[in-house]
Design a protein that fits this description.
The complex is a heterotrimer of chains A (about 375), B (about 220) and C (about 270). Chain A has about 375 residues and is an alpha/beta fold. Chain A has three domains: about 90 residues, Immunoglobulins (Immunoglobulin-like); about 55 residues, no CATH class; about 180 residues, Rossmann fold. Chain A has eleven helices and 14 strands. In chain A, strands 11-10-9-12-13-14 form a six-stranded parallel sheet, with helices on both faces. In chain A, strands 3, 4, 5, 7 and 8 form a five-stranded antiparallel sheet that branches. In chain A, strands 1-2-6 form a three-stranded antiparallel sheet, with no helix packed on it. Chain A is elongated, with a radius of gyration of 35 Å. Chain A starts with a helix and ends with a helix. Chain B is mainly alpha-helical and about 220 residues long. In chain B, helix 1 packs across helix 2, helix 2 crosses helix 3 and helix 5 crosses helix 6. The longest helix of chain B has about 40 residues. Chain B is extended. Chain C has about 270 residues and is α/β, with parallel strands linked by helices. Chain C folds into two domains: about 40 residues, no CATH class; about 200 residues, 3-Layer(aba) Sandwich (Rossmann fold), CATH 3.40.50. Helix content of chain C is about 55%, strand content about 10%. In chain C, helix 2 runs antiparallel to helix 11 and helix 4 packs parallel to helix 5. Chain C is elongated. The two termini of chain C are about 20 Å apart. Classes of the chains: A alpha/beta (about 375), B mainly alpha (about 220), C alpha/beta (about 270). Chains in contact: A-B, A-C, B-C. Chains A and B meet through helix 2, helix 4, helix 5, helix 6 and helix 7 of A and helix 1, helix 2, helix 4 and helix 8 of B.
C-alpha cells in the first residue's frame, strides 16, 4: 500500500516537473498574420505594420519592429511596444526604397521570437484623402448651391432678404454723426487680413465710406494690424474717389495703433473719450476687449452698431450696443448694403446650405433612433 | 489691369489652397507649406511697416501740435526703451524681464480687470425681463452666474436644504452650459460656417471685390 | 426715487464692485469647493499616467489672463512633478514665454524637478497651426532649441521624444481661440488627447468639444483652478481667487434682481 502511494507521488511529481519544464521552456508563438502596407491617405512618408494579438497566456510582454531597406540587413526601428499593440506606423522610412518588416515578440523571460518577413512595400503619397470624402462632398454641395444662386441672380429676379435692423441703422448712424458735426469711429477688430470676419468688416467699411464721403463726416479707423490698415486706406480712398470726393479723404484718419489686444482697447477707448464720436462701428473679430470698447462707446452716448462672428462676444455686444449683427449677418452685410444681385444670390445659396444641413440632421436623428448608424459612421470618417 | 491681377491671384491661391486640404500628397503639401511660409514671412514686414506708420502718425501729431500731442513722446519713450533692450540684450535679459513683469503685466491686467466693472454695469442696465424670451435668458444667466462660484452651492445647500438634491446651483449651471447653450452655439456656428463658405466663394470668384477698392 | 435706482450711476456700481473685491481680499473667505466633472477628468487622466509619461503644456495666454490661468498651470505642474510625469512647456503666444518660464522654474524648484530631465520649456514660435503641424512630424523641426538655447538633441529628456506619439496629453491653457486650433489640427489629425484650461469668458465655447470628447477635460477659469488645487490638496491663488470673486457674483445677482424689481414696479404703475 505504502509502496503504491510512493509510486503515485513520484509519478505526480514527475508529471508536474515535466509540465513545468515544458511550460517554461516553451517559446511563444511567432506573431501571426503580419502585414506591411503603405499607410493610406498620407504623403508617402510611412508604412503601417499590423499583426494579430498574442493570446493572453502566451507570455508576450511586448513587440519590436525590425525593418530592412531594399533587401538589406534587418534593423530595429521601434522602441518596445506594449503587448496589447497590434499596429505600428513606421514614419522613419527612406523614401523611394522598398521595405520589408519582421515583428519580434518579446517574452517576460527576455527571449524573443520573430515573425515571418513581410512582402517588401514602398510608400506612396496619395493625391486624394479618402477619409475626407464626406467633407469634400459637403463642400461641393454647398459651393454648387451658392454658385448656382449667384449666377441665377444675374437674371435680375428680385431676391427677398429679411430686414436686418443693424444694417438698416447704418444710414441713421452716419446721418446722426453728420448732423452733430462729430466723427464716426470704425474698428475692424483684432483679426488679420486673412480673417474672413475682417474681410467682411472691410466690405462694410467700404459701404460706410461711400456714404461718409458725400457728407464730409470724418471717418476714423484705428487699426491693430498694419496690413489691414493699408488695405483699409486703399479701400476708403477708392470709395471717396468713386463718390467724386477725393478731396475729402484724409489718410491720417486711418492709422495703426498697436498689435497688443488690451493696448488697442485702451487706445480706442482713449479716442472715444477724447473725440466723442457720434457713431461707433465695431465690426469684425473681437475677444475680451469687446465689452471694454462697447461700454465706453455706450458711456459717451454714441450710436453703436456691432457685428462679429466671435460668438462668445455676442452677449457683450448685445448688452452694450444699439444694434448687433449676429454671426452670419456680418457676412451678409456687404450684399445687404450694396443690393448687388450676385451678392444677394450668394445669400440664397447659403440658405439652401442650411436646408441641406437641417435635412441631414433630421435624417441622422431618425436613423440613429431606429438603430441605423451608417450616416453617423460615414460622417465620422473625417480625419 | 491693376484690379485684374489681385483677382486672378486670389482665384488661383483660393482654389489651390482648397485643393491642398484634400490632398495629402507630398507635392500638394509642399505647395501648402510654401504658401504658409510666405504668409509667415510677410508678418515681420508688416510689423516694420506698422512701426513706421506709428512713428509717422506721432511725428505728425507733434509737428502740428494736435491736441494731446505731448503723449506722443510717451509712445516714443516706450517704443525706444523696449526695442533698445529687447534687440540689444534679448528677451531673457533681467532688464527686459523687469520691464515686462512690472510694466506690461500690470498694464494688461488693469485693462482686463476693467471687465469686472463693465460687466456689472452692463448687466445691471441690460438684463431686464422685458419679454418672455428675455425672462428665460435672464433666469438661465443668473443660474450660470451664481453656479459659477462656490457661494452658489452654499446658498443652495443652506436655503434649499429640504430638497433631496445637493449642489444644485453648480449642477444646473453645468446642465445649462452642456445642453441649451451647446445647441444654441452649434446653431450659430453652423450659420457662421455657411457664411464663411459663401464669403470665401464670393472672394475666390471675384464677385466680392470691395476689399481691393470696390467697384468694377 | 425709483427712476434714480433704475438709472443708477455706473460709478456707484463700480465702487460697489471694487468693495466686493477688496473686502474679501482683506478678510479671506473659505467657501467649500465642489469639484466639477470636467476638471476631475483631467486630474484622473494625469493621476493614472505611469511615472515617466510626458504631457505637453501650451501656455497660450498673456499677462492679462495670468490671475486665472497661472494657478491652473501651477496646480497641474505640481501634480505632474509629484507623479514623476515629465512636462514639455511651450507657447504660441508672443507675450507668454517670460511668464511661463518664471512659473515653471518656480514650481520645479519647489518640487526638486530638474530642467532637461523632468521638464523642458521650449519657448515661443510664431504661427499657430504651422507649429502644431510641424511638431506632429518632429518637435525639433518647430523648436530646434529650448528657451535657454540648448539644442533639443542635447536635452536628456528629449532623447526619446520625437513627436506627439510620445506625448500622452496636451493641456492647452488658453485665453483665446488656440484650443479650437489644437483640436482641429492635433486631435483630428494625430488623434492626440487634448485637455484645456481656459479663462471664464470663453468657457461656454468649449462645451461642444467636451460633448464630442475631443477635449478629455476642461478647467473653467478661477473655478477650474480652485478645483484642481482642491484635488491636489494645495489650496492657493485659484482658491483665493474664486473666494474673492464670489461676492462680486452675488453683487451682480443682487443688482440684476433690484433692477428687475424696480422695472416691474415701474411698468405696473405705468399700466
Amino acid at each position: 500500500m505504502i509502496h503504491n502511494k510512493t509510486i503515485l507521488w513520484v509519478l505526480t511529481c514527475l508529471v508536474l516537473f515535466l509540465c513545468g519544464t515544458f511550460a517554461f521552456s516553451q517559446e511563444p508563438a511567432a506573431p501571426s498574420n503580419v502585414t506591411a502596407k503603405d499607410t493610406p491617405n498620407d504623403d508617402g512618408s510611412s508604412i503601417t505594420i499590423t499583426w494579430d494579438a498574442a493570446p493572453e497566456d502566451s507570455g508576450v510582454v511586448g513587440y519590436k519592429i525590425l525593418r530592412n531597406s531594399d533587401a538589406g540587413e534587418f534593423e530595429e526601428v521601434s522602441k518596445q511596444l506594449d503587448a496589447n499593440e497590434t499596429k505600428y506606423e513606421d514614419k522613419t522610412i527612406i523614401k523611394g526604397k522598398t521595405h520589408a518588416y519582421i515583428v519580434r515578440a518579446i517574452t517576460d523571460a527576455d527571449a524573443s521570437v520573430d515573425s515571418q518577413q513581410t512582402d517588401a512595400v514602398q510608400a506612396k503619397g496619395q493625391w486624394f484623402h479618402t477619409g475626407k470624402t464626406p467633407l469634400f462632398i459637403a463642400m461641393l454641395l454647398f459651393s454648387a448651391a451658392i454658385v448656382w444662386n449667384i449666377y441665377n441672380a444675374r437674371s435680375g429676379k428680385e431676391i427677398f432678404v429679411r430686414r436686418i435692423p443693424g444694417l438698416e441703422a447704418v444710414d441713421e448712424a452716419i446721418g446722426r454723426a453728420t448732423e452733430m458735426g462729430r466723427s464716426i469711429l470704425y474698428s475692424t477688430g483684432l483679426g488679420g487680413v486673412s480673417g474672413v470676419a475682417t474681410v467682411a468688416s472691410m466690405t462694410i467699411l467700404a459701404q460706410v465710406a461711400r456714404r461718409t464721403a458725400n457728407y464730409e463726416t470724418p471717418l476714423r479707423v484705428p487699426s491693430n494690424d498694419p496690413i489691414v490698415m493699408n488695405v483699409v486706406r486703399e479701400m476708403v480712398k477708392n470709395a471717396y474717389l468713386e463718390e467724386g470726393r477725393p478731396d475729402a479723404y484724409n489718410e491720417e484718419n486711418i492709422f495703426f495703433l498697436t498689435e497688443d489686444q488690451f493696448a488697442y482697447a485702451a487706445g480706442v477707448d482713449g479716442i472715444m473719450v477724447r473725440e466723442k464720436p457720434a457713431a461707433v462701428f465695431l465690426q469684425g473679430s473681437f475677444a475680451a476687449e469687446s465689452l471694454i470698447l462697447a461700454e465706453t462707446g455706450n458711456s459717451i452716448g454714441a450710436i453703436q452698431i456691432a457685428g462679429t462672428d466671435s460668438e462668445h462676444q455676442l452677449p457683450f455686444f448685445i448688452a452694450a450696443c444699439d444694434y448687433t449683427l449676429i454671426g452670419e449677418e456680418l457676412y451678409a452685410a456687404s450684399a445687404y448694403l450694396s443690393k448687388e444681385p450676385m451678392l444677394l444670390g450668394s445669400l440664397r445659396g447659403q440658405d439652401w446650405g442650411k436646408v441641406i444641413l437641417f435635412a441631414a440632421i433630421i435624417l441622422g436623428v431618425f436613423l440613429e433612433l431606429s438603430g441605423i448608424t451608417w450616416i453617423t459612421e460615414f460622417l465620422q470618417r473625417v480625419n | 489691369m491693376k484690379r485684374q491681377v489681385p483677382l486672378v491671384l486670389c482665384f488661383l491661391f483660393g482654389v489651390v489652397m482648397c485643393f491642398t486640404q484634400f490632398s495629402p500628397h507630398q507635392y500638394s503639401q509642399a505647395v501648402y507649406n510654401e504658401v504658409i511660409n510666405w504668409a509667415l514671412i510677410m508678418a515681420p514686414f508688416a510689423l516694420i511697416f506698422g512701426t513706421i506708420t506709428l512713428i509717422q502718425t506721432h511725428v505728425t501729431r507733434i509737428r502740428r501740435r494736435i491736441e494731446h500731442w505731448q503723449y506722443s513722446f510717451v509712445v516714443f519713450a516706450g517704443l525706444l526703451t523696449m526695442a533698445f533692450i529687447g534687440i540689444l540684450f534679448g528677451p531673457q535679459d533681467p532688464a527686459f524681464e523687469w520691464l515686462f513683469n512690472n510694466v506690461q503685466v500690470p498694464l494688461d491686467a488693469t485693462m482686463f480687470s476693467l471687465l469686472a466693472f463693465l460687466i456689472a454695469s452692463a448687466a445691471f442696465r441690460a438684463f431686464r425681463a422685458r419679454t418672455f424670451e428675455a425672462t428665460l435668458l435672464l433666469i438661465a444667466a443668473m443660474i450660470v452666474l451664481i453656479g459659477n462660484v462656490p457661494v452658489g452651492d452654499l446658498i443652495w445647500n443652506t436655503v434649499l436644504s429640504w430638497l433631496p438634491w445637493d449642489n444644485g446651483a453648480s449642477e444646473t449651471r453645468q446642465w445649462i452650459l452642456g445642453n441649451p447653450n451647446l445647441s444654441a452655439r452649434r446653431g450659430i456656428i453652423l450659420g457662421v460656417s455657411l457664411g464663411v463658405i459663401s464669403q470665401a466663394i464670393r472672394l475666390i470668384l471675384g464677385i466680392e471685390r470691395s476689399y481691393i477698392g470696390g467697384g468694377d | 426715487m425709483l427712476s434714480k435706482l433704475i438709472n443708477l450711476d455706473r460709478r456707484i456700481i463700480f465702487i460697489l464692485v471694487a468693495l466686493a473685491v477688496i473686502i474679501p481680499t482683506l478678510l479671506p473667505l473659505n467657501l467649500p469647493i465642489n469639484v466639477s466633472n470636467p476638471t476631475q477628468r483631467i486630474y484622473d487622466y494625469i493621476d493614472t499616467l505611469p511615472a515617466g509619461s510626458t504631457i505637453m503644456i501650451a501656455f497660450d495666454y498673456g499677462p492679462s489672463s495670468m490671475p486665472e490661468l497661472n494657478p491652473m498651470a501651477k496646480a497641474v505642474l505640481r501634480h505632474c512633478f509629484d507623479k514623476k510625469v515629465r512636462v514639455i512647456g511651450m507657447t504660441l503666444y508672443p507675450f507668454a514665454p517670460t511668464l511661463a518660464d518664471t512659473l515653471i522654474k518656480e514650481v520645479a524648484e519647489e518640487k526638486g524637478a530638474v530642467n532637461g530631465e523632468d521638464y523642458v520649456f521650449l519657448g515661443f514660435r510664431p504661427g499657430y497651426e504651422q507649429v502644431m503641424l510641424r511638431m506632429g512630424t518632429s518637435i525639433a523641426s518647430a523648436f530646434e532649441k529650448d528657451y535657454t538655447n540648448t539644442p533639443l538633441t542635447e536635452i536628456p529628456m528629449m532623447k526619446d521624444i520625437t513627436n506627439y506619439d510620445q506625448i500622452d496629453l496636451i493641456l492647452d491653457l488658453a485665453s483665446g481661440s488656440t484650443t479650437q486650433i489644437w483640436i482641429t489640427y492635433v486631435n483630428v489629425k494625430y488623434s492626440q488627447q487634448i485637455a484645456a484650461g481656459v479663462t471664464g469668458v470663453i468657457v461656454s465655447n468649449m462645451y461642444p468639444y467636451l460633448q464630442t470628447k475631443q477635449l478629455i477635460g476642461l478647467m473653467p477659469g478661477y473655478l477650474g483652478a480652485s478645483e484642481y488645487e482642491k484635488l491636489i490638496g494645495v489650496p492657493e491663488k485659484g482658491t483665493e481667487g474664486i473666494n474673492n470673486a464670489s461676492p462680486v457674483h452675488v453683487l451682480i445677482f443682487v443688482l440684476v434682481v433690484i433692477g428687475n424689481t424696480v422695472f416691474f414696479i415701474q411698468r405696473r404703475r405705468e399700466e
